[in-house]
Amino acid sequence: MSTRDERRLARVALTWLTEPGTWSVHRLVQQLGPVAALDLLLDGGAPEKRLREVVAARSRAGEARSVAVEALARTERVGARLLTPEDDEWPARLDDLHRLVLPGASRRVDLETAPPLCFWVRGGWPLGETLDRSVAVVGARAATGYGMHVATEIGYGLAERDWAVVSGGAFGIDAAAHRGALTAGGVTVAVLACGVDRPYPMGNAALFDRIADTGLLVSEWMPGADPLRPRFLIRNRVIAATTRGTVLVEAAARSGATQTLNRALAMGRPAMIVPGPVTSAMSVGAHELLREHSAARLVTGVAHVLEEVGRIGYDLAPPARGPDRPTDLLDDEATLVLESLPRRGVLGIDALAARAGVDLRTAMRKLSLLEELTMVIRRDGGYALAPPAKPAGIPATPAAPVAPPTGARG
């Protein structure tokens, strides 16, 4: 076995021995290399008591290197590939996990946030290049119709503009974002909390097949690994770290999706939140994040998202405004003259000037302009508002009834 193959095998074995994200294991690999780090742990030399206990417990279930050999064989059988930091397509942005510190963290999933040792990938796209221009779209599993619509629109719009859409493959917002990207013919990436050959939830099995065919399925866990509850929170750091920014569409008060956004905030990444109805329980968590974090940005669509993650000064969202009106062209004095005309009837020019508070000369100039714009009409004795334009195809006046010919029978 070549030295490179030994290192890859060791990384797989280490991933099986200890859950991904364990800082002490990551530091050992950085200091000693994966092969020596594995030997140290198997010899009982882990620097922490808890890690020694974990390694001992896993070792009773199997020999780490043998498990790794079988995992690599299964990787080939399911049409996946193993990636390590030595590979060209490894996502460089994962290095930002070194500065991920979550304020007030006490749970293991919030403390053990080290970069991955390796990835399993299904799909033909190069992982690093794909994620270099990607946005995460996450949210509630029990999403509302409003949330599903927004997530689909954002996923579609991003893919249409050649951005990859990253999410977790769950029901609700995740699935809507993936489907939106697929409908646009774009690339979407599902980061899983189980093996890439384990469709979870099973109800999204067809969706995962489509993603594997046209996008990417990614996991830190070897093929066949179960979707244990803590693993969903562990993988959230990868979604936040590998993307240009994270969009939270809907989240209840204790939604796991808020953890992804918190990790993006902690790394200084664009963190975006779609507001929902204040009466909706599925937006409580999202609204609280907006209140608590000044760095979080409110977004209402793709244009706002691109302004946050795109090129500075280039991907700017157009300002929100209503439809253009003819009166938008008027200056203050013309507006005063127009508003001073009665809704019905005619007003003489002297009375109109006095009512608008302008001199007679100014009133005459502005009335000429308003006539050209067909907003007023001149009548005997003064000026009046022009009647509203008739919709196209409707005659200006009703046609007169045709009299029956003389002698026609009634």
SSE blueprint and pairings:
Blueprint: H1 3-17, H2 23-32, H3 34-42, H4 49-59, H5 64-77, E1 81-83, H6 108-111, E2 119-122, H7 127-132, E3 134-138, H8 145-160, E4 164-167, H9 173-183, E5 188-192, H10 205-214, E6 216-219, H11 229-242, E7 246-248, H12 257-266, E8 271-273, H13 284-292, E9 297-298, H14 302-309, H15 332-340, H16 349-356, H17 360-372, E10 376-379, E11 382-385
Parallel strand pairs: 3-4, 3-7, 4-5, 5-6, 7-8, 8-9
Antiparallel strand pairs: 1-2, 2-6, 10-11
Helix pairs in contact: 1-3, 1-5, 2-3, 8-9, 9-10, 11-12, 15-16, 15-17, 16-17
Descriptive notes:
- 43% of the residues lie in helices and 10% in strands.
- It is an alpha/beta fold and 410 residues long.
- The protein has a nine-stranded mixed beta sheet with strand order 1-2-6-5-4-3-7-8-9, sandwiched between helices. It has a two-stranded antiparallel ribbon with strand order 10-11.
- A hairpin with a 2-residue loop joins strand 10 and strand 11.
- It is elongated, with a radius of gyration of 32 Å.
- The chain starts with a helix and ends in a 25-residue tail after the last strand.
Short characterization:
It contains 17 helices and eleven strands.
Number of strands: 11
Structural class: alpha/beta
Indicate the radius of gyration in whole angstroms.
32 Å
How do the helices and strands follow one another from N- to C-terminus? Answer: HHHHHEHEHEHEHEHEHEHEHEHHHHEE
Portion in beta strands: 5-15%
Overall average residue pLDDT: 92
Distance between the termini: 108 Å
The general outline is elongated
How many H/I helical runs?
A: 17
